[in-house]
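=== Structure Prediction Worksheet ===
Name of assembly: unnamed complex
Input type: mixed (protein and possibly other molecules)
Chain count: two
Listed entries:
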Amino acid sequence: DGGITQSPKYLFRKEGQNVTLSCEQNLNHDAMYWYRQDPGQGLRLIYYSQIVNDFQKGDIAEGYSVSREKKESFPLTVTSAQKNPTAFYLCASSIAPSGTGLVTQYFGPGTRLTVL
Amino acid sequence: AQTVTQSQPEMSVQEAETVTLSCTYDTSENNYYLFWYKQPPSRQMILVIRQEAYKQQNATENRFSVNFQKAAKSFSLKISDSQLGDTAMYFCAFDAGNMLTFGGGTRLMVKP
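=== Predicted Assembly ===
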């Protein structure tokens, strides 16, 4: 099946620990994105990548890091520098980057991160 | 910077009736794209409908349609013949060429 997978579905972290969230897509999409969603709020962009080996900061990149070594994978690391990491994290991909026409982002099922 | 505003935090509608969700945005761009996404309790974000700003004709997808008023910077979503499965958070989103900007969402409850 084609789609976007995120793992794990639920993740618990102790304060001071780094943790990595996985995002994989088999849609052959060039662009991938990470969003954060807090309760009762909309999505905010953390990082995005338009091509392999390139990525850009979004609105709330502080305390997060990413890599894009393969087209199909875009892992997000939540570092200990992120002061309030408990949230729902959504990964998305699009066939082409924004700015190249009508480009729709498709989303994975999300990961719920809780800091204990 | 673009902003997207959804002024109705919560709405409810009886099954089989019609409901309209509001969305306004602020931009100085002329070419852009608008989207409505649905987020049911599973929290999966699902595309409902999309609109290109240069097209005057309002987009329609089955029971879902939009009222796009470019001059007023308004992009409302109309759901006809509401079904229980339409119960979800609905997010309006704006793309002017570099990233999606989301509104705060409207929680829609469809009542039997």
